[in-house]
Amino acid sequence: MTRVLITGFAPFGGESVNPSWQAASLVAAEPPAGLTVTATELPCVFGKSLETLRDAIRAVSPDLVLCLGQAGGRPGVTVERVGLNVDDARIPDNAGQQPIDEPVVPDGPAAYFSTLPVKACVAAMREAGVPAALSHTAGTFVCNHVAYGLGHLIATEYPHLRGGFVHVPWAPEQVTDGTAPSLPPAIVAHGLRALLATAARTPAERDLKVTEGATH
Question: 111: burial class by Cβ within 10 Å (0-12, 13-18, 19+)?
Fold first, then answer.
């Protein structure tokens, strides 16, 4: 059995729910065949989120880590390719912190790439009927903080571990005016199960050689 740690965030920015945690909970409650999945909720707080992630990795000893975050306005599930070593918060986190142009890890490398087969993960979700795309920016808020921090943990403490970050759209209940895209967490969870099953059996170096690039 492949041990998986999946994380989602607590609500932030005045929201009452966070679809990343809703989806993570659903996947843990009904994991794909051959995988054991443990879900952990991360605080939407710079620093503390990585402490919670590190504690969860120690407790679970996973083979694979998938961290989820909310990306309101995106129409589908987006697999992040890279995390950047910068915190630049447009809004305060849940502890009132608002770092500007600060490194996630002082003296760390500029970026870490996901160690998941990102293009194969996107293809698996699409095949499962869930809208998905590859993303080349995780933003500069707490999501990117965790995406980069996970990469740093893998590079410096857990070289056997594979992991990456995925953004999910708003849940329908968060879109009160009906003008922004959304996806029910149950549909997101369905796509994530396909993603995890693919990631568990596909090393990053055997990722699909298909175009998922962007011109801007």
Answer: middle
Residue 215, classified by CB atoms within 10 Å of its CB into exposed (0-12), middle (13-18) or buried (19+), is exposed
Q: How high is the pLDDT of residue 176?
A: 86
Q: Of these residues, 44, 67, 80, 145, which one is catalytic?
A: 80
Considering only CA atoms, which of 136, 133, 108, 111 is closest in space to residue 122? 133
Task: Write b or e for each residue in 152-188: b if 16 or more Cβ atoms lie within 10 A of its Cβ, otherwise e.
Answer: bbbeeebeebbbbbbbbbbbeebeeeeeeebbebebb
Buried/exposed code over 52-76 (b: 16+ C-beta within 10 A; e: otherwise)? bbeebbeebebbbbbbbbbbbebeb
Contact 93, 142 (CB under 8 A): yes
Helix (H, G, I), strand (E, B) or coil at 168: strand
Both tokens of residue 37?
Answer: 């999945």
Which backbone phi and psi does 114 adopt, to 5 degrees?
A: -55, 145
Distance, CA of 41 to CA of 103 (rounded, Å): 23
Q: Do the strands 77-80 and 132-135 form a parallel or antiparallel pair, or are they unpaired? A: parallel
Per-residue pLDDT, averaged over 180-200, amounts to: 97
Residue range 26-47, pLDDT digits in tens: 999 999 999 999 999 999 999 9
Asked about 80 being catalytic, the answer comes back as yes
Given the residues 67, 121, 152, 167, select the one marked as catalytic: 167
